[in-house]
Specification:
With 429 residues, this protein is of the alpha+beta class. The chain has helices spanning 26-37, 68-76, 120-132, 191-195, 253-260, 264-274, 324-340, 354-379, 384-399, 401-411, 416-420; strands at 16-22, 42-45, 63-66, 86-88, 90-95, 101-105, 115-119, 137-140, 143-150, 155-161, 176-184, 200-216, 223-229, 232-238, 244-251, 282-285, 289-298, 307-309, 315-316. A hairpin with a 4-residue loop joins strand 9 (143-150) and strand 10. The chain starts with 15 loop residues before the first strand and ends in a 9-residue tail after the last helix. It binds flavin-adenine dinucleotide.
């Protein structure tokens, strides 16, 4: 293992790496680990070591629903077994304007679970722990990326120390690395994307998310709840403790600010009544986090030769279907499959397959961005005709075994839509 806090620039100010991953969140850390396990020399750049603190109720406020396809990837990377993630086997979806609901059950598709709810902080920490123990990875948190210079043989990365001004001098400073393939996994405000001037389609969701953790009078019994309210969906996801659930409540910014400022008992009451007391009464609520929700799609996932965008750097989805990180893990799976097809000593950046990789990933992302936008708009309307159609559709899906099973398989990342965007999925689940 080679671990630095500052990038090693070599005796001549330049050093050649196979792959640089910029951003060590869920997606970038998984990509770095997977590539190193395949034997590539990987440089992982992040602006800081990840850190997290549990809230008052002992859980991270940020949670992700992890699909079986994502779990299989994390398991191969050796980071899943120790997770205290909770399996969920039921999901109930209903709306405040409707009379029907859909109940998804793992047994419908002959599985024990629909997925798992993992706390972000511990999952990222587990990935970094594995990264630190893995040969072939250089971790750099001391330098900041200020320039990218794509070339025919490699991409030059220009770095400055954190806190230093990014001036024109940075372009001639010795802090320069040469990398065969650069993977931008640096999140929604990706520096890689911005340095290359990649345009984005940004969609205003009109929502902020209020995230917190609650303790309820009834146990969740491994059920995830999603109720579509006129001003946005409210999700209750099962936590490690049988009577704790994490909350993601998407709503207009003013409502989110108002609710975030409520006293604990008043917020407990609002969450309980907005969720129709599906978990009984809400007895305790943790600290609240409010942040804007955007949807975004980058114009290209391979904007210049030897540079890829993955995870939230390429697309950001509304969290209503809990798919953002899962789509990012799909990017990683597909990336690793492409790299796996190369021979030792091959130049990973020269792979002719990156253009079609990027096209596949963008088509998949476009589809999911459009579906999320459509769902959100459909449930935001109180037009009586649309309400009637929604009820009809919900009732029909709930009673139609075949369609329901297909929806479940897609949500698990195991359906034809998920597969068509991948070259291959190793474990057929
Ligand atoms: C409320 C909410 C609920 C969600 N629930 C789910 C869910 O249930 N299931 C699901 O699949 N997804 C969910 N998501 C989406 C999911 O959280 C994201 O899609 C996922 O975390 C994106 O991971 P990432 O690694 O691409 O980006 P990030 O997690 O944003 O990581 C980016 C990394 O890049 C680093 N970085 C940033 N800038 C730089 C720079 N200039 N140089 C170097 N490093 C940099 C950051 O420090 C960070 O480590 C949810 C999102 C929200 C907002």
């Amino acid at each position: 293992m080679v671990e630095n806090t500052s990038a090693d620039h070599g005796a001549h100010g330049e050093n050649l790496h196979d792959i640089a991953i910029v951003g060590g969140g869920l997606v970038g850390a998984a990509a770095a680990l997977g590539a190193a396990l395949q034997g590539w020399r990987v440089l992982l750049l992040d602006r800081a070591e990840p850190a997290w603190e549990p809230g008052r109720l002992g859980m991270d406020i940020r949670n992700v629903a992890v699909s079986p396809a994502s779990m299989a990837l994390l398991d191969e990377l050796g980071v899943w077994r120790d997770q205290q993630a909770i399996a969920y086997s039921h999901m109930r979806v209903w709306e405040d304007q409707g009379t029907r609901r859909i109940d998804f059950d793992a047994a419908d598709v002959q599985r024990h679970e629909l997925g798992w709810i993992a706390e972000n902080g511990p999952l990222v920490a587990a990935l970094w722990q594995r990264l630190r123990a893995q040969d072939g990875i250089t971790i750099c948190t001391a330098d900041r990326l200020v320039g990218l210079e794509p070339g025919t043989e490699a991409v030059k990365l220009h770095l400055t120390k954190h806190g230093e001004q990014a001036s024109a001098d940075a372009m001639t400073a010795p802090a320069r690395l040469r990398v065969r393939l650069v993977v931008g996994a640096d999140g929604a405000r990706s520096a890689v994307r911005q340095l290359l001037d990649v345009s984005v389609e940004a969609f205003d969701t009109g929502h902020h998310a209020l995230a917190t953790v609650i303790r309820t009078s009834k146990p969740h019994d491994g059920t995830a709840f999603q109720r579509f309210l006129l001003d946005g969906p409210l999700a209750l996801l099962p936590g490690r403790h049988p009577r704790q659930s994490s909350v993601v409540w998407s709503q207009p910014p003013a409502s989110a600010e108002r609710r975030a400022a409520l006293s604990d008992p008043a917020l407990c009451q609002e969450i309980a009544s907005a969720s129709e007391h599906c978990l009984g009464s809400v007895e305790e609520v943790d600290q609240r986090v409010v942040f804007p929700l955007q949807q975004m799609l980058a114009a290209s996932f391979n904007p210049v030769p030897r540079v890829l965008l993955i995870g939230d750097a390429g697309r950001v989805l509304h969290p209503l279907a809990g798919l953002g990180a899962n789509l990012g893990f799909e990017d990683v799976r597909d990336l690793l499959n492409e790299l796996d097809g190369l021979l030792p000593g091959d130049d990973p950046g020269a792979a002719g397959a990156w253009a079609s990789y990027a096209r596949r990933r963008r088509i998949r992302s476009r589809l999911m961005v459009d579906i999320m936008g459509g769902l959100r708009r459909a449930y935001a309307s109180n037009d009586p005709l649309l309400q009637w159609l929604r009820n009809l559709g919900v009732g029909w899906v709930d009673s139609s075994g075949l369609l329901k099973r297909q929806i479940i398989r897609e949500a698990l990342g195991l359906g034809p839509l998920a597969r068509v965007s991948r070259r291959s999925l190793k474990p057929e689940l």
